[in-house]
Design a protein that fits this description.
binds zinc ion; alpha+beta; eight-stranded mixed sheet; disordered N terminus; seven-stranded antiparallel sheet
Length: 679
């Protein structure tokens, strides 16, 4: 090598050395993908109108009082240092009661939930371990340390408590939460080789994405890189939901095999929770393959196991798309929560539409007016609510899975059902990266948030009877003019939305997009979004048809006959039978030209006392139908009449055309929603 070449080589190496010493290059994998939308602090969104009434019912019912009426939470609670419930049900309840307390700014409920939060925060072990005292700790009068991690207990209930604490922090900024979580995650990182996620239960292994979610949430605050190492480690120790959702075999096999092999991978609640797995993996790796996996998996899930009310069968397992299959309430509320997270991470409108569909249809149908009773499994075509075994993948011995009751079926839903409406409300708005606001799902509420380059406070009153009405008005309340982007979702079902500002038409927009309105907003500005709703029909299992209009799915209106019963172990329960005939097929003309052959009637105003039930149903659709005399109840359910590929039922049909009334699915307890079609 001559001297000149040597000098160049020397300079090149020094330059590289200089580069690496001056600036520690950050590996791509150590930074999270930026959120498309960020959560708004809990308590900034206040429910209004019908939604507020829903929360007042819940406050007066089990959400506000489960600790007073439910033995398991009442007695010697493990999360308050006692020997009672130390597993999932107490954190489940808190996971809905905490957001309710802050959505309603309810002092009493805040005091109530704070007892459990305080006990948890105050009793973290020096090692970082937390939660109810373990058997070993009591017997040995000792605390779980890094060395004795194997004397700890199930990771799973702690994952729920982390979600509770995250929401509590979002509402209060309590300075104890971040160090508490940091310490616990350090503990996890230190012991996971020895005490893996699946050491105690498969529940933890199947639900680890919730653990990962909170770890990555904390990373956004502390930027502590060891958190990313931990979340990647937990991902590896848990069920590979992303892979399953992406590669299709899993969902196909679940449609065929109902055996006890791998049933945890088909368990509908686990599946609902697993939906967030590809999103959190994308967030950590920025690998877009995960987003594709989720899109593929969610679409497959709804094709093979989907039901018209916007959720998949889960009785308890995925169980195909026959309209007589059941869905567990926990599967709905967990799928909702996953989608709320998926929306923030991906910004994908597809999941916003899906979230509204399950919230406004599946969710309200499964609880009673007072929110004190629920069904473990609801059935899409539910021609009666009764005791029975039915074609469920988990038919409990006492035949109580389908009735309404507080303690009927497995009790997870009684504890977990409180997060459905509450978290939906706290995700009505998100913050945008450009310091604006985005309304991505709709319901009446008022938000106060900071926007624009100077973080100015704005209050927006969202006035609407949505999902029953198509008009949404945003009333601005500002101290001074402020420029910020306002983003609005135009749902896919809407052909063309009309946007007006202070009475003047601003623009029209096609459905299936999130639009941005950039403006210097003035006090008392009124922006209206009109989302015209058309009647359509959609195709479901057994070649059935459902009638839809906007975000709502409609079902046959059937007057209800309620009967109370009592079961020795599971207590008081309610059965419901219909008063009229239900065995109708809708006319083929309806499917061909739905808008022309059905009539929409607004029959009742949506008042501030609105309850999701038959007597409050604000909208009706009148359709033409004929009775199918051979369509009868067999062993408690109504097996779907067979149709050929043309979709028309070829059996005996009565000649007489009758007018039937359809009401929003969420207002029904007994119904037909997946109709056979007749000529
Ligand atoms: Zn459940």
């Amino acid at each position: 090598m001559d001297s000149r070449k040597a000098l160049v080589a020397f300079m090149a190496t020094s330059f590289i050395a200089l580069l690496s010493s001056a600036q520690e290059p950050t590996p791509v994998a150590s930074e999270l993908a930026p959120l498309k939308y960020k959560e708004i602090p809990l308590g900034s969104i206040k429910p209004r109108g019908w939604l507020r009434n829903q929360f007042e019912i819940m406050r007066n019912g089990t959400t506000g009082h489960l600790d007073e009426v439910y033995d398991k939470i009442m007695n010697d609670n493990g999360w308050l240092g006692g020997k009672g419930d130390g597993w999932e049900e107490t954190p489940y309840w808190l996971d809905g009661a905490v957001p309710l307390a802050y959505l309603l700014a309810d002092i009493k409920l805040k005091e109530k939930v704070l007892k459990y939060i305080n006990w948890t925060l105050d009793n973290q072990r020096p090692s970082g371990y937390f939660g109810p005292l373990t058997k070993w700790e009591r017997e040995n009068n000792s605390a779980i340390s890094l060395e004795t991690c194997d004397k700890g207990e199930d990771w799973w209930p702690k994952m729920i408590m982390l979600k509770v604490l995250q929401q509590y922090y979002s509402a209060t900024n309590d300075a104890r939460v971040i160090p508490f979580m940091t310490k616990f995650f350090n503990y996890q990182l230190s012991v996971l080789d020895k005490c893996s996620i699946g050491k105690w239960t498969e529940w933890a292994q199947s639900r680890g994405a919730d653990n990962v979610l909170i770890i990555q949430w904390l990373y956004e605050i502390t930027k502590d890189k060891s958190l990313l190492k931990l979340s990647s480690m937990i991902h590896k120790q848990c069920f590979p939901w992303s892979e399953w959702l992406g590669n299709r075999d899993w969902v196909i096999n679940a449609a065929t095999y109902q055996n006890d092999k791998n049933w945890m991978s088909r368990h509908g609640v686990n599946v609902g929770m697993g939906l967030k797995d590809p999103a959190v993996n994308y967030q950590r790796t920025k690998d877009e393959k995960f987003l594709k996996d989720l899109k593929t998996g969610f679409a497959d899930l709804m094709t093979l196991h989907g039901l018209p009310m916007g959720i998949y069968s889960a009785d308890e397992d995925l169980h195909g798309n026959d309209p007589t299959q059941g869905t567990e309430l926990c599967a709905i509320v967990e799928a909702q929560y996953s989608l709320e997270q998926v929306i923030g991470i991906t910004g994908d409108l597809y999941y916003m539409d899906a979230l509204e569909r399950m919230t406004f249809n599946a969710l309200p149908a499964q609880t009673t007016d007072d929110y004190n009773s629920k069904q473990y499994f609801q059935i899409a075509n539910q021609v009666q609510v009764s005791r029975g075994v039915f074609n469920f993948s988990l038919p409990f011995d006492r035949s109580m899975n389908n009735v309404f009751g507080m303690r009927s079926g497995y009790t997870c839903c009684l504890a977990n059902m409180h997060q459905g409406w509450t978290k939906f409300a706290s995700h009505l708005w998100y913050a945008t990266p450009a310091n604006g606001l985005a309304a991505l799902v709709y319901s009446p509420n008022q938000i106060t948030a900071r926007v624009g380059k100077d973080n100015q406070e704005v209050t927006i009153n969202e006035v609407t009877d949505y999902p029953f009405d198509n008009l949404i008005r945003f009333d601005m309340s500002l101290k001074k003019d402020v420029a910020f982007p306002l983003q609005l979702r135009i749902p896919s079902w809407c052909r063309e939305a009309i946007i007006t500002l202070n009475g003047q038409r601003l623009r029209t927009e096609k459905g299936g997009q999130v639009i941005t309105i950039e403006r210097t907003w003035k006090n008392a500005d009124k922006l209206t979004l009109q989302l015209p709703m058309e009647i359509t029909t959609s195709n479901w299992g057994r070649n059935s048809r459902a009638v839809e209009r906007g975000p709502l799915v409609y079902a046959l209106k059937l007057d209800e006959n309620w009967q109370m019963g009592q079961e020795a172990t599971e207590g008081i329960y309610y059965s419901v039978t219909p008063k009229g005939n239900w065995n109708y097929g809708i006319l083929e003309t309806i499917v061909k030209e739905p808008a022309k052959n059905m009539e929409v009637k607004n029959v009742k105003p949506v008042t501030a006392n609105f309850i999701w039930n038959l007597s409050n149903a604000p909208t009706e659709i009148i359709a033409s139908a004929k009775k199918i005399p051979d369509w009868k109840i067999v062993n408690g359910t109504a097996p779907q009449p067979v149709t050929d590929r043309t979709g028309v039922y070829k059996g005996k049909v009565e000649d007489k055309v009758e007018k039937i009334t359809l009401v929003p699915y969420g207002c029904t307890k007994v119904r037909i929603v997946a109709f056979p079609v007749v000529k």
